[in-house]
């Protein structure tokens, strides 16, 4: 009888206690369709980090994180449907891994008061927080990537690339055209000749483009590709015996599956990155123990340490840290989307904190502000070794040329503000 | 000889090679349309399915492993074997024959006598279903395709040194011709010769032609339409496998392979839906036309002209010859 009474009493107390909702991080993923090869490892990394936090730490500030996956198939309309279907679940921040979906979601998240996080993709000028209140694209964006690639060429050419011919092979879409303005500005500044060569979607056939490269003999080739375009371009470059060490892709052209179809000939290919590579970080021991071995991995557990897995993992880490900061700032564990935005606007991550998380030097230390949603714009260069099957960083995380990029960001965001009657904030 | 003329010659040669690859895809469409009047929207997905099945069998991947593991809580992914390429191709052909039989029994057997648009819609459904099945069966990852006779002798890829050196001696500029494209051309020639021999000199081939010419007449002499259609879908499945191998060798086997069908449509418009030579000639014209246009005009208009110019070229032919270059002129009297 006493036991029954005690049980009843405990039950009443538990019922009276406030119910703690999960912290919801929707993942607009694509595990099917032509772009699934890139979408799967990213989505796995994003989900696995939150699973790790839940399993190892009991959630964020004692509240469990919940990742709601919605399949977009990299289709913009489906992405918007996913957003509409999940925003009522208490979504804190969206990370759609698609520039097309990002463009459609910018006005929606702004109206709904939810954060949109687009690291290394999306609308570049969203780095200007004065105009884009709800969008964050730290630590680096497309224009930083273009500048980082040129900086690398400056480094390997003793600081002088005047008179060099640099070709840009790009996906003939809004995404692929992103770096052109920046590269044009940089070509004026450094005196190199820019040769822009578009590749139509999906990029399965690129013979004309690589014949042109063979004829024009550019000193370097930069690539802005995604999906099958990457694999075909690297294969065609190998076919025409273009020196791989002179071929640099953006971070969306720098995954393992981009280089493996070309086999040994892909050795030496480079890509820009805004985070570290490989699985040699203490945090991945925890991922193995608490996530993979426990059978809780989002995928088969075989993507850990791959380039796009690390990117999704890194994005999740930054969002989890922002959520923890929001809890601290608001004084409540059960934060809302507005708390998340406030925390993102004053977000910072230090080298010490990354080391504590088992991710030393995984990405740059940086701070975000009301005006600067783009972070430091730093990045490094990774290089592929086919024999080892690994990427290695061949440079430190260095700065991009903000003297060139900032005016472009200001001009583009000002045009967006004028178009949409947005008054500048953070003044 | 001017540099531009030499470059144009190189572009033309590469256009011819690309045209062969387009023709390989178009052939599958032609076979099915000719025999059954069905425009098979699923032909590109069949190429994807065949290539994925080939790699899966060759590398000993357990089909539906994700599904099996999720339902049964197991951890099975591989059988542990690595089959010889030719053995894997043989097993894949068996799978494609099984698919042809299933398609006939489950779908088209029940749609006999329906309007062509209904049959076309059925193939759209089939395309999406097959894409989903391929995903479930083999996963969405990009798979490397290694077709090898021996461990040291695999499908060649990269610049052909002999052509490069010879043309360099002739013109002072070495032409780039991809060994894979040369292989594809030889394979396509053998394939077309085999198809012609099959349709001319075998009983089943003659029956196939009879059905293609007149269903009713073929039925009246005791030819089984059901069998012939299974046969035709099987042959189209084999052609899809060849196309899947050639395209998959370039980029790895991945889901965008299904989009190669888009490259076949202008070829069909130009060459006609009912002619095997039409598919070949159409492929060559489209290949050369789009590559030369991109070479000559592309730089003036910002490039990336190939996708749309192929259709412009096909439309131009349609205006003057609606049935395509080699298609049959259909006159319906009312």
Automatic annotation (TrEMBL), chain A:
Record-linked InterPro entries: Leu-bd, Peripla_BP_I
Stretches of the chain forming a coiled coil according to its record: none
Signal peptide (from-to): 1-21
UniProtKB keywords: Signal
Record domain Leucine-binding protein: where: 28-385
Record carries keyword Signal: yes
SUPFAM superfamilies documented for this protein: Periplasmic binding protein-like I
UniProt record similarity statement: Belongs to the leucine-binding protein family.
Protein name (Swiss-Prot/TrEMBL): ABC transporter permease
Organism: Actibacterium pelagium
Automatic annotation (TrEMBL), chain B:
Cellular localisation: Cell membrane
Keyword Cell membrane attached: yes
UniProt xrefs under InterPro entries: ABC_transp_permease, BCAA_transport_permease
Keywords from the named record: Amino-acid transport, Cell membrane, Membrane, Transmembrane, Transmembrane helix, Transport
Superkingdom field: Bacteria
GO molecular function: transmembrane transporter activity
Family: Belongs to the binding-protein-dependent transport system permease family. LivHM subfamily.
Matching PANTHER family: ABC TRANSPORTER PERMEASE PROTEIN, BRANCHED-CHAIN AMINO ACID TRANSPORT SYSTEM PERMEASE PROTEIN LIVH
Protein name: Branched-chain amino acid ABC transporter permease
Higher taxonomy: Bacteria, Pseudomonadati, Pseudomonadota, Alphaproteobacteria, Rhodobacterales
């Amino acid at each position: 009888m006493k036991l029954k009474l005690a049980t009843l009493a405990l039950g009443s107390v538990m019922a009276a206690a406030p119910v703690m909702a999960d912290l919801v991080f929707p993942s607009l993923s694509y595990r099917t369709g032509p772009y699934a090869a890139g979408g799967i490892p990213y989505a796995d990394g994003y989900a696995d980090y939150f699973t790790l936090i839940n399993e190892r730490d009991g959630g964020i500030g004692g509240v469990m994180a919940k990742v709601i996956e919605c399949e977009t198939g990299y289709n913009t309309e489906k992405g918007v449907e996913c957003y509409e279907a999940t925003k009522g679940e208490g979504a804190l921040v969206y990370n759609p891994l698609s520039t097309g979906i990002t463009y459609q979601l910018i006005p929606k998240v702004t109206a709904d008061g939810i954060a949109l996080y687009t690291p290394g993709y999306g609308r570049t000028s969203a780095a200007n927080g004065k105009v884009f209140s709800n969008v964050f694209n730290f630590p680096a964006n497309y224009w930083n990537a273009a500048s980082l690639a040129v900086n690398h060429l400056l480094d390997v050419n003793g600081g002088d690339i005047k008179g060099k011919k640099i070709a840009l092979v790009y996906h003939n879409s809004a995404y692929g055209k992103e770096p052109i303005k920046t590269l044009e500005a940089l070509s004026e500044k450094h005196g190199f000749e820019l040769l822009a060569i578009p590749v139509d979607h999906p990029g399965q056939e690129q013979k004309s483009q690589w014949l042109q490269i063979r004829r024009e003999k550019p000193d370097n080739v930069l690539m802005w590709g995604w999906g099958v375009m990457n694999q075909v371009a690297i294969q065609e470059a190998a076919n025409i015996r273009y020196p791989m060490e002179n071929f640099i892709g953006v971070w969306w052209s720098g995954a393992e599956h981009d280089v493996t179809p070309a086999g040994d000939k892909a050795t030496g290919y480079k890509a820009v990155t805004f985070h570290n590579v490989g699985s040699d970080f203490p945090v991945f021991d925890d991922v193995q123990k608490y996530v993979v071995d426990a059978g809780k991995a989002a995928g088969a557990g075989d993507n850990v340490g791959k380039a796009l897995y690390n990117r999704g993992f890194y994005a999740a880490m930054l969002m989890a840290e922002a959520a923890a900061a929001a809890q601290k700032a608001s004084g409540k564990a059960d934060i809302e989307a507005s708390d998340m935005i406030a925390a993102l606007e004053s977000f910072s991550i230090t080298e010490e904190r990354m080391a504590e998380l088992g991710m030393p030097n995984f990405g740059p230390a940086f701070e975000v502000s009301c005006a600067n949603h783009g972070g430091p714009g730093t990045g490094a260069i990774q290089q592929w070794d086919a024999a080892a099957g690994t990427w290695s960083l061949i440079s430190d995380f260095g700065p991009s040329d903000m003297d060139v990029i900032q005016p472009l960001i200001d001009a583009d965001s000002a045009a967006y503000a004028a178009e949409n009657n947005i008054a500048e904030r953070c003044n | 000889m001017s540099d531009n003329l030499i470059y144009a010659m190189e572009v033309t040669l590469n256009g011819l090679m690309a045209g062969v690859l387009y023709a390989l895809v178009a052939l599958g469409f032609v076979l099915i349309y000719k025999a059954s009047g069905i425009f098979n929207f699923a032909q590109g997905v069949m190429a994807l399915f065949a290539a994925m099945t080939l790699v899966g069998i060759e590398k000993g991947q357990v089909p539906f492993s994700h599904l099996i593991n999720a339902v049964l809580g197991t951890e099975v992914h591989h059988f542990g074997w690595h089959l010889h390429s030719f053995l894997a191709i043989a097993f894949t052909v068996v799978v494609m024959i099984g698919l042809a039989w299933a398609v006939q029994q489950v779908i088209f057997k029940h749609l006999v006598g329906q309007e062509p648009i209904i049959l076309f819609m059925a193939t759209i459904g089939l395309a999406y279903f097959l894409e989903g099945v391929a995903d479930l069966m083999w996963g969405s990852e990009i798979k490397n395709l290694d077709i090898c006779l021996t461990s040291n002798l695999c499908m060649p890829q990269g610049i052909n040194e002999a052509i490069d050196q010879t043309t360099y001696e002739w013109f002072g500029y070495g032409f780039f011709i991809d060994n894979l494209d040369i292989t594809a051309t030889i394979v396509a020639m053998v394939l077309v010769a085999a198809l012609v021999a099959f349709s001319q000199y075998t009983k089943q081939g003659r029956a196939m032609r009879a059905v293609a010419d007149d269903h009713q007449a073929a039925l009246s002499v005791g030819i089984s339409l059901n069998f012939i259609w299974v046969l035709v879908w099987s042959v189209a499945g084999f052609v899809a496998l060849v196309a899947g191998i050639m395209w998959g060798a370039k980029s790895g086997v991945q889901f965008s392979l299904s989009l190669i069908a888009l490259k076949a449509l202008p070829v069909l418009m130009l060459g006609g839906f009912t002619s095997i030579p039409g598919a070949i000639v159409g492929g060559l014209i489209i290949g050369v036309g789009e590559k030369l246009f991109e070479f000559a005009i592309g730089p003036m208009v910002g490039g990336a002209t190939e996708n749309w110019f192929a259709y412009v070229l096909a439309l131009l032919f349609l205006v003057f010859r609606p049935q395509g270059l080699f298609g049959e002129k259909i006159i319906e009297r009312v």
